[in-house]
Amino acid sequence: MVIRRFFERLIMLFVMGINMIFGTQFMVQEKTIDATFVDVPISHWAFNYIESLYAEGITKGCQEELEMRYCPKNNVTRAEMAILLLRGMGVTKADLEPSTGHVFNDVKINNFAAPWIEKLAADGYTKGCQTTPPLYCPDRQITRAETAIFLLRVKYKDPSYVPDALGPGEATGFTDVPRNYFAAPWIKQLAAEGITTGCGNGKFCPNDPVTREQMAVFLVRTFDLPIAAPPDIEVLSNYTDYVDVTNYFHIVGEVVNVTELPLTAIEIKVNFYNENDQLLATFDDTTLLSTIPAGDKACFDFAIQEPVGWDYYEFGTINEWQQGQTLPMLTVNNLSHSQNPDELWYEIKGNVTNQEGSLISNVRPVGTLYNDEREVVGCEWTYTDPENLAPGAVGSFQMPFLGRDFSDVVDFRIQVEGQ
User: Fold this and answer.
1) Residue 240: phi, psi to the nearest 5?
2) Average pLDDT of 77-103?
3) Among the three residues 174, 198, 222, which one is the final residue of a domain in this structure?
4) Which domain holds residue 408?
5) Is residue 381 domain-resident?
6) Mean pLDDT score, 240-250
7) Most CB contacts within 10 A, which of 66, 165, 252, 264?
8) Are 275 and 177 in a shared domain?
9) 394 closest CA partner among 327, 311, 307, 334
10) Residue 195 lies in a domain
11) Which has the higher per-residue pLDDT, 340 or 159?
């Protein structure tokens, strides 16, 4: 399996007791997380993409002296784009000819990007922004539509590349990109290549400028660069699998968050392969506890139809996550459990008390079941009754686990979240 075993790489350990589980303790790594750029902390949504660009030598940021900055919100200019594209294709300064200042009227010999712009033109990837007189518009912000064209041509290393035209009645896939838009086929193809999902709400925002943080994502996906792994967020090695009574295949396990921040929307991917190591299917899911506190872990449950002909599965590196909010003060008490292996169920009951001092809505306990080897054998959630708890209020819950023999369960853990 490609998953690194978490407990094999611990350097310093401390024990963290959680009062939501019968005194059970677990080990997490104590570590300080460093970011390359002071303005791109680990909580930044594009952190791993920007770190990847830096690791591959495609960017040094917008400032190197005193402290390194990336300026993620700045818009990318056409001059900067020339440099980023060529570096992505492996071009270095040593590969450049001295600039002449005669290719474009608005790119003088002393322009910082002149050698790169002239190289991009010499290789046929650009004709500038105007032909008569020849202009490149180096200081103009590049749009998302223009970016689509550049990215696809450099992806295929073919300056003459043109995507297939839209077929009769074929839509672009974005509500703000009509069929007759000049870059419509390019934008549709960019999405088909998995390089973009648009700007949200079914739109592409073709005329918007591209920010440096957005460009990092575009470039990493275009050049298929290795994505810098998020700081110690990974699937633990204590996962198991089983087939339930409805013939669904379950993979249950835990994700650990060994960072200094609560993280949410952590996307887990599992890949299924046949005996010839060919990828058959990929599934993605998130932990049932939507936000994992700093230094904590949470369970997941993939419930899927087994791919035909699969031989083994592996988890992919986690590279999708966002900074979350601290969980509200909800305490669990009066826990009890019962099980009936013959009838294929296990149940946990208990109460949740709101000690936050304000109303908490949608209170959700999440339960994790363990066997005697501390492997995860179940993961489930439910709502309290009532779901919304006023300050000091108590809600009860019953959490059934169904569909298999739970006779191997020796311990469980309850975590709670709400809004």
Assistant:
1) -135, 175
2) 94
3) 222
4) 1-33+231-419
5) yes
6) 94
7) 252
8) no
9) 334
10) yes
11) 159
